[in-house]
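Design a sequence for this backbone.
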């Protein structure tokens, strides 16, 4: 099952957002394994992931990180 995230958030220069949560697709709450989101016009951050169709309940939250130059 594809799940799309779209978060309106204005970051400071050098910051980015990611999504972390339960299950393999969301990194088991490990920020180092967060799904990095991509900035889009209007200060929206987007990401799309595949979730196992057997997942009945998935929890997630946005994760702040510092982006490397050019990333």
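Sequence:
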């Amino acid at each position: 099952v594809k799940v799309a995230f779209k978060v309106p958030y204005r970051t400071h220069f050098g910051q980015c957002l990611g999504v972390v949560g339960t299950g393999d697709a969301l990194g088991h709450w490990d920020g180092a394994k967060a799904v990095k989101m991509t900035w889009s016009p209007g200060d929206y951050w987007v990401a799309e992931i595949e979730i196992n169709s057997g997942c009945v309940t998935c929890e997630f939250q946005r994760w702040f990180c510092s982006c490397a130059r050019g990333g």
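The CA atoms of residues 22 and 58 lie 6 Å apart.
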